[in-house]
Design goal:
The chain is an alpha/beta fold. It has two domains: 4-117 and 290-308, Nucleotidyltransferase, domain 5 (2-Layer Sandwich); 130-286, ATPase, nucleotide binding domain (Nucleotidyltransferase, domain 5), CATH 3.30.420.40. Helix content is 40%, strand content 20%. It has ten helices and twelve strands. The protein has helices at residues 40-56, 97-105, 114-125, 185-188, 190-200, 207-215, 219-243, 258-272, 275-278, 292-308; strands at 4-10, 14-21, 26-33, 67-71, 75-76, 81-82, 109-113, 134-139, 143-149, 152-153, 247-251, 282-285. The strands form three sheets. A five-stranded mixed β-sheet has the order 3-2-1-4-7, sandwiched between helices. A hairpin with a 4-residue loop joins strand 5 and strand 6.
Length: 311
C-alpha cells in the first residue's frame, strides 16, 4: 500500500485538506470555510480540528506518514512559520505552523508558500510533469508564482523566492497591497482587468462577462483584454530572460481561456523575447485546479525528507 499523507492548503477564507498518497493521487477531500476572523490560534484550531476529522473519518492519524502544508502569505519555509507578511489570513503573521502541528500530531510537517506548492503539484502530477525548468504564473485577485529550475523549486535563503507578483514593472505606479508601488500584480491580476473594464463599462463586472463580450466582438472588451494580456506578457518576458524556462504554466480560473488568453499571451511573449529564449518555449494552462496546493505541499514534504533523511 502506498504511504498516505495529509495535504493542507490554507487560504484567506478557507482551508482545503486532502489525503494524498506518495504517487500524488488525492483520495479524499475536505474544505472548511473560516466562520469568522480571529487570532492566529483560532485559524490553527480550525486546521487542527479539520485534520483530526479527516484522519478519523478515514484510516486514523497514526496511519499517516506526514503533513504537508501550503499557505498564503510570506512563508519562511526554512523555519516552518509565517513571516511578518501574513497575507489575507486573519492575524496569520509569525504563526509557528510546523511547531504547532508537530506537537499536536507527532508527525513530520513541512510548510511552503501556496503559489510555490501549486507549481510543485503541477510539476509532480499535472501539466508540468516531465519538465525540469518551469515558470508558473497564477492569475487571480493577485498574481502568484513559482519557479522550478533544474528540477527543484527556487526558494531563496528563507523560502520567500517566487513572489513574481511583487516585481515592480511600473516606476511610480499604483500602490500595491504589499506596500510597494508599481508591482506586476497591480497590472496583471484579474482584479486589475476588471477594474479597467468597469471604468469603461459598468456592465463588464466580471471576467466571464468580459471574455464573452470580447468573444462576441465588442470593441471595448477586446481592447481591455488585449491591454491586460500585454501587461502580463511584459512581466513574463522579463521572467523568461531571467529563468530560461522550458514551459510557462498559467494558473487561475482564467487559464481555461485557451484561445482568448493562452494563445495570444504566447504570441505576445514570443515577440518580446530574444529568439534564443523563444526556441521550444511552451505555454500551457495548469491542470490540477483546487488540488494543486495540497498535492504540491505533500511533494514539498517528500522533497525535504529526501534531502534530510527525516523531518
Amino acid at each position: 500500500m502506498n504511504k498516505r499523507y495529509i495535504g493542507v492548503d490554507i487560504g484567506g477564507t478557507s482551508v482545503k485538506l486532502g489525503i494524498v498518497d506518495d504517487k500524488g493521487q488525492v483520495h479524499l477531500r475536505k474544505e472548511v470555510v473560516y466562520t469568522e476572523a480571529g487570532s492566529s490560534a483560532s485559524v490553527m484550531d480550525v486546521i487542527i480540528k479539520s485534520i483530526h476529522e479527516l484522519a478519523d473519518g478515514s484510516i486514523g492519524i497514526e496511519a499517516f506518514s506526514g503533513i504537508g502544508v501550503s499557505a498564503a502569505g510570506c512563508i519562511n519555509s526554512v523555519e516552518g512559520k509565517v513571516a511578518m507578511n501574513g497575507g489575507n489570513v486573519p492575524n496569520w503573521s509569525q504563526t509557528e505552523v510546523c511547531h504547532i502541528l508537530r506537537k499536536e500530531f507527532d508527525l513530520p510537517v513541512s510548510l511552503a508558500n501556496d503559489a510555490n506548492c501549486a507549481i510543485l503539484g503541477e510539476f509532480w502530477t499535472g501539466a508540468a510533469e516531465g519538465y525540469t525548468d518551469v515558470l508558473g504564473i497564477t492569475l487571480g485577485t493577485g498574481v502568484g508564482g513559482g519557479v522550478i529550475t533544474g528540477g527543484r523549486l527556487l526558494e531563496g535563503a528563507h523560502g520567500f523566492a517566487g513572489e513574481l507578483g511583487h516585481f515592480p514593472t511600473h516606476a511610480g505606479g499604483a500602490h500595491c497591497i504589499c506596500g510597494l508601488d508599481g508591482c506586476f500584480e497591480r497590472y496583471a491580476s484579474t482584479a486589475s482587468m476588471i477594474r479597467s473594464a468597469v471604468d469603461v463599462d459598468p456592465n463588464l463586472r466580471n471576467g466571464r462577462i468580459l471574455f464573452e463580450a470580447a468573444g462576441a466582438g465588442e470593441m471595448h472588451a477586446k481592447s481591455i483584454l488585449d491591454n491586460w494580456i500585454t501587461e502580463i506578457a511584459y512581466g513574463i518576458a522579463g521572467y523568461v530572460h531571467v529563468f530560461d524556462p522550458q514551459l510557462v504554466l498559467i494558473g487561475g480560473g482564467v487559464s481555461a481561456q485557451k484561445e482568448m488568453l493562452i494563445e495570444p499571451l504566447r504570441e505576445k511573449v514570443l515577440s518580446m523575447i530574444m529568439p534564443d529564449f523563444a526556441e521550444d518555449l511552451e505555454f500551457k494552462a495548469a491542470a490540477l485546479g483546487n488540488d494543486a496546493g495540497m498535492v504540491g505541499a505533500v511533494y514539498y514534504l517528500l522533497s525535504k525528507e529526501e534531502l534530510t533523511g527525516n523531518m
